[in-house]
Amino acid sequence: MADMVSGDVSNTAESQKMASVSVILIPWDPESQEHAERMAQQRIACGWKQDQIENWKDQQREGLIGLHWIVLPPSDPNTTSRLERHIFAFPDEATPLHNTCKRVLSRSHTPDPAISTFIPIGHISLDSWSPYDSLQTSPSNGVYSLTTFYVSKALQYGGIGGAAMTACETMAARDFGAKAITLDTLANEEYRPDNPRRAAMGLEQTRPRVTPQDWYQRRGYIIYLKKEDGFFDTDPTGKIWGATLVCLKKELV
């Protein structure tokens, strides 16, 4: 399931600010302990999947997933202030990583010598494989999937999530011949104040400004399937709650 990311807001000033945001995607290196540790830190901050790092190493090596760091361009005048906000919130992420990945999605990759080190402020994964048939992932048919997406909570609602999606879609079409991207996320009804699962999990007060479903739909993703009990949560009493997911697709060509 695609992670919840920052949403758009409606006022003109904020929209103009978001339009000016750009990011660079740098592949995650499964051979680097520093990369693995930073990914674990960001998954803990995200709130789930922190136990998947070892599996992701194998899947990244095999070309099944394409995890990429979200990086702010060094030339952007706002990069310094944004990194300061990120590091203030997550001081353990202040050490730069080395740009060392040599292969991604079964293709050789040459690191940009102009960016030998970087501080990632999130990550996004373009995958050529998924354990879920509902995502229709099939590189031979030009369909890739997005299953892991995180933006630093210190920088959400500022356009970085949208910039990362644009960069990922561009990369998918340009470098891998993707014709479409699919993903799944919690359905809108899962964020209603009277939703019993949210109440049982103590999440009544945590509704995002924009739900993930609405955020993706604003970016041109269209629902093609709804799955009841597509995701499960366990409340503090041990009761298991099923949640409804929606599968969405965006045609790139």
UniProtKB/TrEMBL annotation:
InterPro entries named among the record's database cross-references: Acyl_CoA_acyltransferase
UniProt cross-references to CDD domains, sorted A to Z: NAT_SF
SUPFAM superfamilies named among the record's database cross-references: Acyl-CoA N-acyltransferases (Nat) (SSF55729)
Superkingdom of this protein's organism: Eukaryota
Protein name: Uncharacterized protein
Biological source species: Pseudomassariella vexata
